[in-house]
Specification:
The chain is of the alpha+beta class. 22% of the residues lie in helices and 35% in strands.
Length: 380
Amino acid sequence: MAGPRAVLEAWQDPSAAPLVEIRNVTKTFGNFYAVDDLSLTIYPKEFFSLLGASGCGKTTLLRMLAGFERPDSGRLLIGGEEVTHLPPYQRPVNMMFQSYALFPHLSVADNIAFGLRQEGLPRQEINQRVAEMLELVRLSDYAKRKPDQLSGGQRQRVALARSLAKHPKLLLLDEPLGALDRKLREHTQFELVNIQERLGITFIMVTHDQEEAMTMSTRMAVMNEGRIRQLGTPGEIYEHPNNRFVAGFIGAVNQFEGRVIAQNEKQLQIHCEITDSNLVVHCEHEITLGTPIAIAIRPEKITISTVASETIEKSENQLTGCVEEIAYLGDVSIYHVRVAPELLVEAQLTNSARRHTAPLTWGDQAWLRWKAEDGIALLE
């Protein structure tokens, strides 16, 4: 009997129809390229994040989808229909702003109903939708309150309910959790994902918060200087960054620069000048000897110890250095180890057991080890 067939995600299925198509879009402000010949396809029911630092073009791209900015060139399609030159009110899109933009003189219910009344919907349908949205965001008991009588998290949910009340095909979120404190932000992340999954509406979120994007997204695009540097699921981007910029931007990472000195099957040997050592890394592709390359290794992939390993396998790396900094975060401890005059390596130790004393302290000699397959070879 044949085994179970793998379920393809929409972006893996060549027969799936995209909801959003961004085709070779460019937007400039004077001589500055905010978005530079960018193409992107987003599918129905995705929670998609545009991630990048300030000025990378992510908000400009979101505003073009909403209709608040016009591209200099390129095309925008939603549901197969061209919207490049349509005004915002003619697009099947709604946008939730970072400031929430609630009307202070209106009640929660009236804020949610505002867009529906502008469209001229019958009163009965408006009341029904408002009730549905209040129940969805768990604010039914707050319908008559004004925004200044709500907490930050409650105002965020009112803004979300107002954005969803018109049943848009696409909801755009501009830094939606930026105004919330850390604990409330973490809680609201899961609420947003649950609501999105229940409604089946496509969300596109702009954020500079890596953890937020990793937690909430089905897929994400890392942007820099108006272009997408990598597109993929959070796991793909974190575990398999395809260039130095993405490796350094997403999470903590150590990067060792060197040159290829040998290759044996799927393993590269690299000479790292700064540590004057030979390191090994797994690589599927054949690389010319002498090619400049970097090895990226995440801190949690590194084993830290007070003693050297007596037997180092061909698939392992080992460096030694002096502990300079320690950060105790409760669940983990972060160690900065000086392995060369100009190179600090960050290693992470999970505090899985209660300890009265730390296994390593400032000034100790530490031995760092990691496997070749845990590193990432970066050519760009």
